[in-house]
């Protein structure tokens, strides 16, 4: 995967100047909205693990899990993965195949747990 798929940002000045290695190609792919995007998932019942397929509700493979585990903070099974662009909206119902069983999953916003650290105002 690339930083574009993971939605890592490029500073506004650098996007305009395209003065970084691969700048032209990165900006072309960023504007084309092609490929897959990194998403967060809440998986019901079983924790998803890397390389498990992510399916749409029709059962077609639309992505792959990159990491997943039970979350003590949320009390749910969370996972990250890459899915096709049409499945990146929050609340999109998906499925994850864990071993030979299929479990419901929902696309959610990341981070899974909101930050609560203190930032001193200047």
SSE blueprint:
Elements: H1 12-17, H2 23-32, E1 36-43, E2 53-55, E3 61-71, E4 76-84, E5 93-98, E6 101-108
How many helices in DSSP terms? Answer: 2
Sequence of strands across the biggest β-sheet: 1-4-3-2-5-6
Profile the largest sheet.
6 strands, antiparallel, barrel
Helical fraction equals 10-25%
Mean pLDDT: 87
- Give the low-pLDDT segments: none
Proportion of residues in β-strands: 35-45%
Structural class, judged by helices and strands? mainly beta
Number of β-strand runs: 6
Task: Write the H/E string, N to C.
Answer: HHEEEEEE
Give Rg in angstroms.
17 Å
Shape: flat
State the end-to-end distance. 38 Å
Question: What are the main properties of this structure?
Answer:
2 helices; six-stranded antiparallel barrel; flat; 6 strands; mainly beta
């Amino acid at each position: 995967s690339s930083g574009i798929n993971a939605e890592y940002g490029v500073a506004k000045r650098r996007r305009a100047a395209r003065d970084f290695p691969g700048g032209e190609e990165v900006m072309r792919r960023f504007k084309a909205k092609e490929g897959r995007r990194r998403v967060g998932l809440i998986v019901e019942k079983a924790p998803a693990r890397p390389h498990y397929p992510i399916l749409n509700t029709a059962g077609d493979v639309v992505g792959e899990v990159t990491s997943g585990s039970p979350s003590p903070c949320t009390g749910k099974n969370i996972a990250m993965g890459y899915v096709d662009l049409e499945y990146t909206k929050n609340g999109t119902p998906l499925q994850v195949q864990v071993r030979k069983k299929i479990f419901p999953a929902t696309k959610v916003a990341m981070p899974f747990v909101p930050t609560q650290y203190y930032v001193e105002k200047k």
